């Protein structure tokens, strides 16, 4: 009689063991029958790996992405085949454009049914080809460890991003011997010292140098190194779209962010720089305002472009000094760089003063002044509070008027994805229950993933949720009014009673119809162990911090 090898177990157990060895402590997902053996394998690791049961795969993928941003570790999401995979796609796309490490585990039909369009079958290589670094299918049980190792290495190397692994059902059920593999090693490109020296020699000669920081792959150490050098040398630093938390926004070197409707003074400062140092940021469409801030492909000034992956260098902008290095390696090397005597030393202070002036509240129609409320948030929240948001015109108020407190105080999707704010805030409370997490949402944005309040209730991870309610899809309505004045179609919304909705999840709720009502509501929310929902009703005319709805149009 043959004997079973002591390391023999079913594929789900092998996979669960491999995840634990990769250091996975939290995984998010919605259970499905297509990966039952993996769920079974997780039973043996309940003290080390917690599976967060979510209510929809899109919310689960957002949570995994937010977890990765906060911790620097790959976010892990587990979803079932077909519909589950389709729902999760939105979070995978977010991770891809935000350069966030993620490992996506998706159930799949058995290998004996592939290419028959079996129940819920999808070709994941085709589905995810545009938004994943790699899509693999583990078609042999004895290769599970190999594929997991590859996935975790790839997700964390170069330009970080999502990796997708399909899990054929029969492979998970089969027995095989475990092939124990250590945790992935994070592989980074070393700094070319000669190229660095030449680039920074030119930078030190400049009269009007400028730095732009952004993208993924940053560490707290790198952020501190950049801030220390910039303050010592009096260099202004701007951040890219939704990367405002790379610096404390009250840091004297912070010049503002190049996002939607950026400060015109900042844009002018960037365009008039006589050399530009860009660290970690691809210089994408939103940061470059439709690629109009800098000329394509050759910028109007010498460009030093630092990115963790050489594949991204020269993709849109030609760099005079293309440097492949992590932000940490590059920023640590900056300490040796000293500016020349011709540098205009008052530039940093002038840039920061311009940021502060642009951040002063503006007046909008109606009894609720949203910019005043957002600006006042800094007096209510601790500096390490985490603020999250999805997409919509409401977010412009947050980005412009709230000074973020530094590293990992902002969770926002660079791909402009609606519905991100609430799941991200829930993930933040799961990761660090003691930190204040505030989800800043529009009414349309909130309703995209409002069901995840059930996840918050289950895991006692309830954030403060601020809902800016103007009864419409504001961003689309704004564009609609610009292009087809007074011809409204498809952008008006009918909302539930948000107060009653909050109470159904045992959360206190407050409706704000005047500016002065907000202070007591946010204070009550901060004291509540159940979090809170604060609905702010604003005039539909207040379409942006500086425009009225009726003013738009040709």
Automatic annotation (TrEMBL):
Residues 390-536 form the Thiamine pyrophosphate enzyme TPP-binding domain. Gene3D superfamilies: 3.40.50.970, TPP-binding domain (3.40.50.1220). CDD domains: TPP_enzymes (cd00568), TPP_PYR_POX_like (cd07035). Residues 198-334 form the Thiamine pyrophosphate enzyme central domain. Keywords: Thiamine pyrophosphate. GO terms for biological process: isoleucine biosynthetic process; L-valine biosynthetic process. GO terms for cellular component: acetolactate synthase complex. PANTHER family: ACETOLACTATE SYNTHASE LARGE SUBUNIT, THIAMINE PYROPHOSPHATE ENZYMES. This is Thiamine pyrophosphate-binding protein.
